[in-house]
Amino acid sequence: MPTTYAIPDGRTVMAATTYTGTGAAASISNAVNGVSFQPDWVWIKSRNNVTNHSLTDSVRGVTKIVFSNSSNAESTFAGGLSSFDSGGFSLATGGDVGFSASGYTYVGWQWKAGGTAVSNTSGSITSSVSPNTTAGFSVVTYTGTGSAATVGHGLGVAPSMIIVKRLNSAVNWSVYNANIGNTNYLQLNSTVNSTAQGANNWWNSTNPTSTVFSIGTIADTNASGGTYVAYCFAAVAGYSAFGSYTGNGSTDGPFIYTGFRPRWIMWKRTDTTSSWSMHDTSRDPSNISTNNLFADTTGAEDTGDNIIDLLSNGFKLRNTFARANASGGTYIYMTFAENPFKYANAR
User: Fold this and answer.
1) What is the DSSP string of 268-304?
2) Where are the domains of the chain?
3) Which of 130, 83, 159 is nearest to 229 (CA)?
4) Could you give phi then psi for residue 213, rounded to 5 degrees?
5) Is pLDDT of 182 > 60?
């Protein structure tokens, strides 16, 4: 019997859209062969210039920005996005370098959550949640207490990855990943390796459940009066995967099966310092994928490295760079599909 997937077409919930800035207001369509959606999370980066990674979501509001490469607090900026649209997003006038400067090239990664946020009382902290339970993605905002607590995420299954940023103070991003466990953390804006949380307890040494994730007492995730956004992800067969692999130090690197052709992938080495590498099939429609951006830096696209093949049912490493495939190196990844395997085209 053929497999029926919860997300039969990744184009309905995730997009990687390239465009060129004009310096003027513009509407950016995420349609691929007529399939589009209204995003709730938009992550924009200039490809050919040094700029911040700008992250905006529908729960905080279209003018509220955080930068994945920075510990800076949330900023309010009317010159970036102006709306989340039924088939993409719109850019404000002004030509800001982070969004739409004339002649700058950009990529806009987009995910569909659940639209208007609702109150969630599953945790000891009441949160505002926009969950897409079918796609395994929710946007969560909450206010910290300074004491160990739980926060409802709305997914109905335990998330495999949680990315948290304090909004009202300049502190580092915090990343939970099931493959490194609940006593360790990573930082999206940093190259830091998987680090034991110690007494400050990022995740209260507790795995997420189907209803809540746990936070300890550190200001990065739970300061008294601190405001936070959390992006929560659960694996969905045929659409998303959150896993780990060990490098072999060869140009014939490991193959990692995902069950789908990756549309977008981000990975990080965890046993030593390393950047967060990001590839997608809009910037690299053919193998080998060479156009690399780093979530933790402002740098322009690195176009000189033959790193990875994005295949019909997974990905394969094609270089010996330490950030991707060191012998014995350990890595985590998150990836989302163009289409599940039974619909994917071979590459």
Assistant:
1) EE-SS---EEEEETTT--SSSB--BEETT--PPPB-S
2) 10-111, 118-233, 240-343
3) 130
4) -115, 155
5) yes
